[in-house]
Predict the structure.
Amino acid sequence: VNECVAGHEGCRRPKFSGRKEEETKPELPTRVIDVGTNADGATVRLVETKRRRDHYIALSHCWGPPTKRPLCTSKATFPQHLAGIHISSLPKTFRDAVAITRLLNLRYLWIDSLCIIQDDRNDWSMEAPRMGAFYSGAHLVIAASGARDSTEG
């Protein structure tokens, strides 16, 4: 990642040219998973970003069949996910993404099933059209392209 950001023209971070470093960071999606700063932390939590700017990782993954649906945020689980999600309750693909995010010393991770309230039509209609921007604005996209569902890692 460092080689890419430093050496590839299309990946190079913009020069500050008088602007604060914060202004050069992308706007975070509406909600992200805060993986914390402790590599051994047992929980992560959903946070509302309020248009804050920072680098984040996005996860592209296969949801799989209805019987293997990944952990999702719903209207009912939204308050719980804001309070914290125990890592042991995450499917393997999500746990792997949290580990990679922490290893790269980034704090935020965007996962569609957790960051979009799945049974809220208003939230879905606002967030789904922005998914392309969420992926393209990410510092890095992890693609779990070999997994048939979120349990495989």
